[in-house]
Each structure stands twice: as structure tokens, then as C-alpha cells.
Amino acid sequence: MSNMYKRIKNDPRLTKKKESKVAGFFARLKGLLKHRGRNPWKINLNKKRTPWTQILAPILIITIPVCVMMITDNTLMRLPDLYKYHLLSSEILSERMITADENKVAQLISDYMLHKTGKFQMKEDLEYMPDDLFTTSDGQMMHHIRDLVDIELMVGFLSLIVTIAIITYLVRRREKDLLLKSFYLCLPIFVIMQIVDVFVLMFRPIRNRVFGIPKADDAVNLLPALLNHSYFRLLTLAEVALSVLLLGLIYYLVLNLSGRKSMFRR
After folding, report:
1. How far is it, in rounded angstroms, from Cα 191 to Cα 243?
2. Which residues are CB-neighbours of 218 under 8 A, at least 6 positions away?
3. Most-buried pick from 3, 39, 124, 175 (CB within 10 A)?
4. 187, 202, 194: which is closest to 232 by C-alpha?
5. Could you read off the pLDDT of 45-100 as tens digits, one per residue?
6. 235, 266, 228: which is closest to 69 by C-alpha?
7. Is the sign of the CA dihedral 205, 228, 140, 84 positive or negative?
8. What residues contact 27, with CB distance under 8 A and at least 6 apart?
9. Other C-beta atoms within 10 Å of 71: how many?
10. Cα separation of 50 and 199, whole Å?
11. Apex CA 142: angle with CA 133 and CA 211, to 5°?
């Protein structure tokens, strides 16, 4: 039998059924939605992402100890409590026959460190011709100490912001084990920084160079006599205790964020 369809395009067995325009539009739309996240010009569609969690987590090893140390030092050296305790316990003003209230002297130092006053000076509590307590050299020394503490405050505040940002990022990425591991790794750095801080505060030549303490006679300058070796020993003990307490609070926070609350119930 001869073929009834001599032209192939007219053969209904080989010719596809034409789709309507509406069906064709929805078919193309479905294909676009299926491949909407792909870029046809990229050769490697499975490109690896940057491991930000592995990059940011080690930064906590440095920022947590720095943040704790700087905030602790600023708290102790700006508030008047430590100065009051030292002046009352040592009785330096009474031994030097200076008529002045220890609380007022401690408050003056605190106000100057907090930038509440720009003049580091006060007079004796005498009605007739009271003398100035501090010399020009004392004012220069106090100004140098305040500048040093201001730098520590900026470094500590920046470290605090970075620490909060990284911890928030790790928690949102559910990298809680990595957060806890980073905190454990920061503990040796914290111990090393504490040892260095104790060495600087207790070793007199380095302490005098860092805090700008002059080599003049203490009988002339009152401030070196007030901030003597006994004060820096007290400051060292207070810094170690307060920094350990603050680090313990951070540890408790990290344990709660990483889901380790049950450790305290055992």
C-alpha cells in the first residue's frame, strides 16, 4: 500500500499537537521559577561559601580577655571607692600633717578621671591661707594616667562591640559548640594577660614608666605618695578578683546560649 502521507510534516503520527498560548506561557513560567537561582553564565554553580563562622570564632579568643581586662581597669581607676579605702587605711594625709578630708581627695581623683573636672587641684581645709595639695608635676602625672585609661576604655569598648556581634552571629548560625570552644581557648590568653598586668603594676621601674610617675621626691609631690606601691598592690588584687568575676559571668552567659544549662544541676 502506498503511503497516504507523502510529506512528513503533514503526517499526524509524527506532528506534535500544538499547545495553546496560555499553556505555553505557564510552561515557560514554570521553567523560570524552577531555575530562578541559577546563573547560566557561571561555569561552577556549586561554588563554596566563605566559612565566616570559622573565621570569626577565633577572634573571640582575643576580644573576650581584652574586653574583660579593659573594663575592669576602667571601673577601678575611675570610681572613688578604691581611692577612699586606700587613703583611709594608709592614713597618708595624717602622716604628712595635711589637713584634708580623705573622701574629698578620693572624689577629686574620681571626678578628674571621669572628666567631670578639667583641673586637678584642691586646697587644704584651713581657714587662713590654705595651700594647694598638688603641684604641677602631680597634675601632669594625673593627666597622663587619665589619657592612658581613656585609651584602654576605647579598646575595651571596641572589643565589647566585636564580642557581642560575633556571639550573636554564632548563635544565629547555630554554631553553639564552636562558641563554647572559642571561650575555652580564650582562658589561657586571659591568664597570660593577667600575669603581664600583675608584673607591670608590681614592678616599680616599669610601673613608673607606664604611668608617668616622676622620680622627684615624694616630700614635694603628694600624688606619688598617694598612689604608692601599697595602692598598686591593692589595685592588682582588685583587678584580678573583679576580672575573674566578670569572666565567670560571661562563662555563665555562654553556657546558657550554647544549651549547657544542665551542667549546673548535676
Report:
1. 11
2. 224, 225, 228
3. 175
4. 202
5. 455 677 777 888 889 999 999 999 999 999 999 999 999 999 999 888 888 888 88
6. 235
7. positive
8. 19
9. 19
10. 41
11. 130
Q: Please give the grid coordinates belonging to residue 150.
A: 581613656
In angstroms, rounded to a whole number, what is the distance separating the alpha carbons of residues 104 and 247? Answer: 33
Q: Look up residue 44 and give its three cell numbers.
A: 561552577
Measured distance CA(55)–CA(41) in Å, rounded: 30
> 149 vs 73, 77, 155, 223, CA distance in Å?
8, 8, 10, 17
Q: Is 204 left (phi over 0), alpha (psi -120 to 50) or beta?
A: alpha
Residue 6: how many other CB atoms lie within 10 Å: 8
* pLDDT surpasses 60 at 160: yes
Beta-carbon contacts of 7 under 8 Å, excluding residues fewer than 6 positions away, are none
| C-alpha span between 231 and 173 (Å, rounded) | 46
Give the position of cell 556549586.
Answer: 46
Residues 6+ apart with CB under 8 A from 2: none
- Sorting pLDDT into bands at 50, 70 and 90, what band is 132? confident
Which residues are CB-neighbours of 180 under 8 A, at least 6 positions away?
254, 255, 258, 260
Model pTM score: 0.76
Q: Give CA–CA dist 86/11, Å, rounded.
A: 108
- Cell readout for 47 is 561554588
What local confidence, expressed as pLDDT, does residue 39 receive?
Answer: 54
Could you tell me where the beta strands, DSSP code E, fall in the chain? Answer: none
Q: Are 93 and 87 in contact (CB under 8 A)?
A: yes
Percent of the chain whose pLDDT exceeds 90: 46
